[in-house]
Amino acid sequence: MAPPSFRGDIRNEYYFFTGQFKKQYDLGTELIRKKVKCGSFCQGVDASWFAYYFAQKGRHKQAQTWARKSVLAWNQFLKIRNNYYYPYVNLAFANGILKQFKQIEINLQKAQELSKQHRTYNEFEDVRENLYEK
Q1: Cβ atoms of residues 61 and 44 within 8 Å
Q2: What is this structure's pTM?
Q3: Homologous superfamily of 4-131
Q4: Which sequence spans correspond to the domains of the chain?
């Protein structure tokens, strides 16, 4: 049988690509209980996308609740692994939903440094385009 971390990775990807963000968040909670390090990663990804979903629907209170959950999850994950750019992109995304515009750029700068991508890399630009008020 595959180890819990591998099974968690597979389920995480499935939930993400099928847009089942609540299940992905719950998976993160389950993995944290099992002491699997990627649990907070699952929660962070899910919560930022769920926050964006609610923001798009005009449900700003729920969007902010999920954005705060995302920030908490990413802060936990970054205690374990802070050398991967993707958490910083998602953290910037959650910061944007919370209208923490200075934090968006701080986190995108960190993502840029870690990924060695240009400032205009598509993932960084997606955050800016989707969250900055026009």
Answers
A1: no
A2: 0.86
A3: Tetratricopeptide repeat domain (1.25.40.10)
A4: 4-131
